[in-house]
Amino acid sequence: MKLYTRSGDGGQTSVIGGRVSKDDNRVEAYGTLDELNSFVGQAAAVAGATGELDELATELIEIMQELFDCGSDLAFADPEGRTFKITAEPAVRLEGWIDAHVEQAPEITKFILPGGSETSALLHVCRTVCRRAERRIVTLSGDMAINEDVLKYVNRLSDYFFAAARSANAKLGVPDTEYVRSADVFKKRK
Q1: Which UniProt keywords apply (predicted)?
Q2: What is the distance between the alpha carbons of residues 150 and 138, in angstroms, rounded to a whole number?
């Protein structure tokens, strides 16, 4: 099998059910999800390298599968009447994971800067790329109907990356780096 087809040499690419320009909003949206997925893979590899964050690595691998599903759901030339892969369930599961990660991290009162451990730093990269993917999906949703569960999932996912970054630091005994000019902006847990 050849990896190159030459069919995109003129600036067009295939989507499910047609062809579009490579800078089409749909391609921007699922392309940014693909970029995010690469960073999630890197974070999973680093998290799983020592054995201390195996549960996190397992979660990240599941997220990688779901990100591919999200991209597939956005790749339809005409999404009307399609059966989608992403439903409401993965976002609900993310909420449970977020809550668990929040419980494993110390109280937060100030803004924090990305970093601490290598895993945490990578998860913050995932968070920011995830937010960009969300913006691309919102733009796409202004052009055409999309699977709204993809947008909900990606919105929840950026929160997951923040919570997971903080709990990874806590599990590894590495403090978060607070933004020194931050006021106390977060309320105490109830």
Answers
A1: ATP-binding, Cobalamin biosynthesis, Nucleotide-binding, Transferase
A2: 10
> Which tokens in the block code for residue 57?
């690595």
Give the orientation angle of helix 148-172 with respect to helix 54-74, to 10 degrees. Answer: 160
Over residues 147-176, the pLDDT tens digits come to: 999 999 999 999 999 999 999 999 999 999
Domain ranges of the chain: 20-178
**Residue 139's closest CA among 157, 151, 149?**
151
- Alpha-carbon gap, residue 23 to 31, rounded angstroms: 10
Give the homologous superfamily in CATH for domain 20-178.
Cobalamin adenosyltransferase-like (1.20.1200.10)
Question: Does an H or E element contain 17, and which?
Answer: none
Residue 78: the pLDDT is 79
At 106, which helix (H) or strand (E)? none
Determine how β-strand 112-113 pairs with β-strand 177-178. antiparallel
